What we know:
By secondary structure, the chain is an alpha/beta fold. Helix content is 43%, strand content 21%. It has one domain (5-162): Maf protein (Alpha-Beta Complex). It is built from seven helices and five strands, in the order αβααβαααβββα. A hairpin with a 2-residue loop joins strand 4 and strand 5. Helix 1 packs parallel to helix 7 (139-162). The longest helix has 24 residues, at 139-162. The radius of gyration is 15 Å and the shape is globular. The termini are far apart. The relative contact order is 0.18. Residues 5-157 form the CinA C-terminal domain.
Amino acid sequence: MEHNIFEECGQLLAKNKLTIACAESATAGQLTANFSLSEQSGDFLKGGLACYDACVKEELLKVDAKLLEEFTPESAEVTFAITKGLMTIIKADIHIGITGLTRSGGSETKEKPVGTMFFCGMFGENKLFEDRRVFQGNQEEIVRQATIHTATLLKESLMQLLSK
């Protein structure tokens, strides 16, 4: 595994008997795949859904078409909505959603350039983390950075939550 943050998250999740599921748009399952390579993945990984196309967001994750139209599929609002939608499909302690722009041809603007990614993590009904970040590089590099960033957000949020 290229970066041990996925293994660190896996150990933290397994040690605390927590499970995780992911809804991934721009990363198309790469985060889930990275978690699956963890030695203890069978103890914490419930599954993932690649929801690259808007119709998957609407039909499977029940994201309102008006929300997609108003905010675009690559937005904080839709990222939250796919995370909530995932909660109805895969039962887990933690649900993560990722959307964003890894290449041109989407909803990019000057304010939201290619490389802009949105992240949402839920622990039950509570937000564990929410973030917007702009990464540089080609499509593969943006996806790699986004998955590492998500795992970092998860680890930091879990450590803070578990220390209470």
